[in-house]
Amino acid sequence: MRKNRYYWIAAAMLAALTLASACSRSATPAAQPSTSKPTRSITVVGQGKASGTPDVGHVSIGVETSGASAQEAVDANKRQMTALLEKMKAMGVAEKDIQTSNYSIFAERTEANSPKAGAPSAGETIKYRVSNMVSVTMRDTAKLGDVLDQAVGAGANAVYGVSFEVSDTSRLEAVAREKAIADARSRAESLARLTGVSLGDVQEVSEVIGGSGPIYARSSMEGLGAGTPIQPGELEISLSVQVTYAVQ
Fold it and tell me: pLDDT per position in the chain (248 positions), as tens?
């Protein structure tokens, strides 16, 4: 009898729990599908350029000598190179702006021709050549032509790679960046007008990495002599920015 009573009590409790769970599920509202629209936007890439006059020049200057022996060529090179360095320093080129870029000694072997056909060769001739080059940085580009003239007068017989740069490009980069932003705005407004929408706020902006970098002006020397003509030209900075605008 007691067992039957426990059985009916447990059954009543289980029924109560089942009813409570069903009521709880029915009280929870069904999930509604999202009605929000995806954000619309226009993404463009704007470009900007700025030019400036270079204020630093670079050039490789050196001495090449030859001799019947390596020592003879080395001694001759040493004398001419010492005179060259002293001349450049006397013209105001700082020691920190003169750096050795190459020093080499090599032998040239030539076969002497026989004076008569079929006659034995006169033997091999060996001549030694020495090259000593320095990279020179000019902080005053207006003096570069005079420095080259004086260097040649002091014994330099090898001049290569005249180039120029702007020492501080931050101002040019700022101008180019401002133009790039304005260009991006113009492009976005054009696209918005063509598609019948209006521009909203800027959502994202980034500077494009790997775009055009500095273009260094280069010059070729039109002969060496008094008043060597050197033209620094202009340096151009080019930047790109990617801008995303919301549309309405």
Answer: 454 555 545 555 544 545 445 454 544 455 555 555 667 999 999 999 999 989 999 999 999 999 999 999 999 999 999 999 999 999 999 999 999 999 999 998 887 665 565 555 566 788 999 999 999 999 998 889 999 999 999 999 999 989 998 988 899 999 999 999 999 999 999 999 999 999 999 999 999 764 444 444 444 444 434 457 777 888 888 999 999 999 98
Q: Could you please state the CATH topology (level 3) that the domain comprising 57-165 is classified under.
A: Alpha-Beta Plaits (3.30.70)
CATH code at 41-53+169-247: 3.30.110.170
Taking the chain, what is the end-to-end CA distance rounded to the nearest angstrom?
Answer: 79
- Give the residues across from 187 on adjacent strands: none
Domain ranges across the chain? 41-53+169-247, 57-165
Is pTM beyond 0.85? Reply is: no
H-helix segments, 28-143: 70-90
Report the helix count and the strand count for the chain, using DSSP H and E: 4, 7
